[in-house]
Automatic annotation (TrEMBL):
Pfam families: CHGN (PF05679). It is an enzyme of class 2 (transferase). It catalyses: 3-O-(beta-D-GlcA-(1->3)-beta-D-Gal-(1->3)-beta-D-Gal-(1->4)-beta-D-Xyl)-L-seryl-[protein] + UDP-N-acetyl-alpha-D-galactosamine = 3-O-(beta-D-GalNAc-(1->4)-beta-D-GlcA-(1->3)-beta-D-Gal-(1->3)-beta-D-Gal-(1->4)-beta-D-Xyl)-L-seryl-[protein] + UDP + H(+). The gene is Csgalnact1. It is a single-pass type II membrane protein. Belongs to the chondroitin N-acetylgalactosaminyltransferase family. Its main location: Golgi. Keywords: Coiled coil, Glycoprotein, Golgi apparatus, Membrane, Metal-binding, Signal-anchor, Transferase, Transmembrane, Transmembrane helix. GO terms for molecular function: glucuronosyl-N-acetylgalactosaminyl-proteoglycan 4-beta-N-acetylgalactosaminyltransferase activity; glucuronylgalactosylproteoglycan 4-beta-N-acetylgalactosaminyltransferase activity; metal ion binding. The lineage of its organism: Eukaryota, Metazoa, Chordata, Craniata, Vertebrata. Gene3D superfamilies: Spore Coat Polysaccharide Biosynthesis Protein SpsA, Chain A. It is found in: Golgi apparatus, Golgi stack membrane. This is Hexosyltransferase.
Amino acid sequence: MMLRRGFILFLPRLVGLLVVACCSMSIVYMLACTPKGDNQQPALPRVHSPTVKEGYEAILQEREEQHRNYIISLKKQIAQLKAELQGRTEQLKNMQNQYPDPLDIQLDHSKPEKAQANLLAFLRSQVDKAEVHSGVKLSTEYAAVPFESFTLQKVYQLETGLTRHPEEKPVRKDKRDELIEVIELAVGSLNKPDGVSRAKPRVYTASDFVEGIYRTEKNKGTLYELTFKGDAKHQFKKIVLFRPFGPVMKVKNENVNMADTLINVIVPLAKRASKFRQFMQNFREMGIQQDGRIHLTVVYFGKEQMNEVKSILENTSKSANFKNFTFIQLNEEFSRGKGLDVGARFWKGNNVVLFFCDVDIYFTAEFLNSCRLNTQPGKKVFYPVLFSQYNPSIIYGHHDSIPSLEQQLIIKKETGFWRDFGFGMTCQYRSDFINIGGFDLDIKGWGGEDVHLYRKYLHSNLMVIRTPVRGLFHLWHEKQCLDELTPEQYKMCMQSKAMNEASHGQLGMLVFKQEIETHLHRQKLSKKT
């Protein structure tokens, strides 16, 4: 690419030099044809001399020979320049064919052969640019792209994904199909006759596959190295495959106007008035003051602390001049799924974006825009992965005081984790929620209802947008796992509780606290002696 651009810049200069050379030769030719001065003219024979005719003919013949030599010299130089220019032009064409610019590749259906040739040339260039045949210099140890290994049954991965298992069966269909395809291609390649050996070739099968490694360079492609059993005990066959990524192609270019897109934030609640007060402070600043296109629906279970919750809601309404809220009271046992379902169906206006939220969630105005941009009725629902805060008393236990809430909301491995096992906070249009059938109202208490709804969307034709977002936080609170929960719910609750406290390193410091203190005490004694 750099060579081609450099030659393109050099090409006008080369043409200019050619023009200057031609002009120079013309001037020389003119000077050569101009009669010389009197002092420099050769002595001509006298007019009445008998040899006058022969003398003039000799001089003219000499001049003509000189001019002919000049012309031949000029033609040679011009021919050389033309040949050099032609060579550079051919070189540029070869470079363009070998390394086409991805932005210049046009899949012109009127000329499919040319489009296919351009695409194949680009894909070959991806192999040359990737770290396949030789290594590349890297700046730090963190710049290396690690491989992951696999066998016929298992994948051993560093990027553990949503399952969090370092060793697992390929659960996702796309990954399973990808690895099966690669193994089948390798087996097919091994079984192709080489045209050299006359012996009956061995037939390889998938059972001969020993192991493979693969890694993906995001802008180039995926490299696979597969090892098969050889003909003898310590012999192996190795196949290297590369799946190049194609050029970037524009799919859509559209204007999106979200000025009139309202979000209905639905919060199921029972007791927890102090947490609701904290939630309303966040809602007032981000939802009312900064965003302004928002409605709040609170579905309250029971009557205990209900008046306090209603008072907080009414005070916010008066002080912020906010009227877009709905309070629904249910005299029954708390059920998160039931509360969200009732709040969604209670809405009587036009189709609206629903944001299913909890009282211990902190969101920003930027997240509300993400909520709008990643939902589309009949097409897309949004399942953000929020950042879950660790126990501040553990994180900041060595500090003089715990920082304010806003200062705690930092996305770092020491302060929290991506809650990729949670599906409770979600944005979708009300029409999609109704059409999918809503929540399973038979699920009581904590957990399970969100996963059930998530699976409904996965089994539908709607696109599920699942991504970490920087503006959605789960605030730490002590989790109570009640005895009334089913064994499965109780297990999920305890796992969530363990994950919420601190990182592995921080929990390890607590576990080995006594050993650390003993070590420090011995150090002090040794210094005194």
